[in-house]
Amino acid sequence: MSKSFRRPQALSRAIRLLSAGAMLTLVAPLAQADALDDLRDKLVVNGQPLPVESLASSPIDGLYEVRLTSGESFFTDIDGKHLIVGEMYRNDGDKGLVNLSEQKANGERLKLLAEVSEDDMVIFRPAGEVKAVISVFTDTTCPYCRKLHQEVPELNARGIEVRYLAFPRGGMRSQGARELAQVWCAENRTEAMNQIKNEGEVPKQAASCDAPVQSQYQLGTRMGVQGTPAIVMPDGQMVPGYLPVERLATMLGIDD
Fold first, then answer.
1. What DSSP character marks residue 239?
2. Per the residue annotation, which of 139, 146, 178, 185 is the catalytic one?
């Protein structure tokens, strides 16, 4: 007769502990998800629910990061009672302070930009090697956008590719929105952009295509664009306003 196999007591206990650990591994994320859903319901100000886009834990236990559909963000406790508006830093000792909020925002900008097709941009490419790419939210009625555009040939000469996205600073009913749609609907977008920014010549034909002006305006708002030009660097950092060629090249690590 064969003897029935009996697990040693220590082995049985280990298996029970492992099983319990596996269950905790599954339950913990579910519990956190439920807690965050509850937190979303608690984020009500003056009787109105906040337009929450995402909720996530932060490096500090008990503190959660809230991102609104407007692109703004803040931190709160799990009850939504105490709100902290500002950036979070990590102290790396001798290495100084690391802006964790900016790091995360940079990553999110890059992710959002990666979802925009190049076919929906107006792109000025260098003739030779591309050493860096900048994405610029622009408005045809913006004087500093025109000033930056006059330097695009020099940027291209230094190997910097310029990718334009539409951002009518006056909103979707503004002159800028209409002009941007005309540029995007032009047969030759780069030529139309040159004409309107360098010569002030607005395309004669009305916009007759499904121009992505509104979607890019919403994208810029979501990314925190508040004015034009807004330059997104290769690492996702956003630089508000005009920068001369020399300064841009230096920031991009490109020597003359």
1. E
2. 139
Active-site pick, 146, 169, 178, 185: 169
Q: Which of 142, 146, 158, 178 is catalytic?
A: 142
* Element at 67 (helix H, strand E): strand 64-68
User: How confident is the model over 109-132, as pLDDT tens digits?
Assistant: 999 999 999 999 999 999 999 999
Query: At CA 205, angle to CA 202 and CA 209, rounded to 5?
Result: 110
234 preceded by cis ω (within 30°)? no
Tens of pLDDT, residue by residue over 132-163, are: 999 999 999 999 999 999 999 999 999 999 99
The three state secondary structure string of 16-48 is HHHHHHHHHHHHHHHHHHHHHHHHHHHCEECCE
Structure tokens at 16: 């029970």
Both tokens of 6, joined, read 């009996």
Q: What is the pTM of this model?
A: 0.76
